[in-house]
Amino acid sequence: MEFQALKKPDQINEQAYIFDFVLFHFFQTIPTHFLVITINFSHTMQAK
User: Fold this and answer.
1) Which UniProt keywords apply (predicted)?
2) Burial class (CB in 10 A: 0-12, 13-18, 19+), 7
């Protein structure tokens, strides 16, 4: 599983970087099925 925002902080704004950083740690404590749903939502928001 890759987090593009964590790898390319220069290509996104600071808020999005922090948001993904928080999600990255939050993901470690939640069920996988919820994780996938949240990632899909996150990617959709980033695409806009």
Assistant:
1) Membrane, Transmembrane, Transmembrane helix
2) exposed
Residue 20 · residue 5 · CB < 8 Å: yes
The helix-helix angle for 14-26 and 32-47 (nearest 10°) equals: 170
> Residues 12, 7, 31, 22: is their CA dihedral positive or negative?
negative
Q: Name the strand (E) or helix (H) holding 28.
A: none
Nearest-angstrom CA–CA distance, 34 and 10: 28
Measured between its terminal Cα atoms, the distance across the chain in Å is: 22
Please state the pTM of the whole predicted model.
0.27
Q: What integer is the mean pLDDT of 19-35?
A: 72
